[in-house]
Amino acid sequence: MERKCIHCGAPFQGRMDKKFCCDDCRTEYHNKIRRQREKGLREINHILSQNWRILSAQLRKGRRRISVSELAAHDFNFEIYTSMRKTFPGRRIYGCYNLAYRISRTGYVHIFPIFEG
Q1: How far, in whole angstroms, is CA 80 from its chain's centroid?
Q2: What is the pLDDT of residues 44-89, one digit of tens each?
Q3: How many whole angstroms separate alpha carbon 94 and alpha carbon 99?
Q4: Are the beta carbons of 96 and 82 closer than 8 angstroms?
Q5: For labeling, which of 50, 55, 93, 107 is most exposed (least CB within 10 Å)?
Q6: Rounded to the nearest 5°, which phi and psi values hold at 88?
Q7: The pTM is what?
Q8: How big is the CA angle at 58 (ends 53 and 61), to the nearest 5 degrees?
Q9: What is the DSSP code string of 28-86?
Q10: What are phi and psi of 35, to 5 degrees?
Q11: Per-domain residue ranges for the chain?
């Protein structure tokens, strides 16, 4: 009985439970499955990295406060963050890796580093 590789479709011979014609096809097949499975994770990490770069750039400029609209103009995504902590009723602090920010009622974002210890 002739079998075909589930990755490239090439015919091959061997054990009855063999699915691939060679190690390269087996590796590429499993890498493709892993890439598809982790696609969402990569997209979220890309957004988080972009947010971190934006916040970090503001801190390097000495700016600890920036308007929500200005941050949005830099393509900051307010819906993705690494952590969120409620402080007072209606107030939240959002984390983005080792930085944090708080959105004030006056329309400003206050940025600060998270210190561990």
Answers
A1: 9
A2: 999 999 999 999 999 999 999 999 999 999 999 999 999 999 987 8
A3: 9
A4: yes
A5: 107
A6: -95, 165
A7: 0.72
A8: 125
A9: HHHHHHHHHHTHHHHHHHHHHHHHHHHHHHHHHTT-SEEEHHHHHHTT--TT--SEEEE
A10: -60, -40
A11: 3-37, 40-113
Q: What is the pLDDT of residue 88?
A: 78
Q: What is the pLDDT of residue 117?
A: 45
Residue 78 CB neighbour total at 10 angstroms: 13
Q: Is the dihedral of CA 97, 103, 109, 110 positive or negative?
A: negative
Closest CA to 75 of 48, 104, 101, 106: 48
Length of the chain as a residue count: 117
Query: Between the CA atoms of 15, 18, 20 and 26, what dihedral angle is there, to the nearest 10 degrees?
Result: -120
Residue 65 zone, left/alpha/beta (φ > 0; ψ -120 to 50; rest): beta
Are 94 and 100 in contact, with CB atoms under 8 Å apart?
Answer: yes
Place of tokens 């103009």: 73
pLDDT class of 116 with cuts at 50, 70, 90: low
Residue 99: Cβ within 10 Å count: 19
Residue with tokens 């920036």: 66
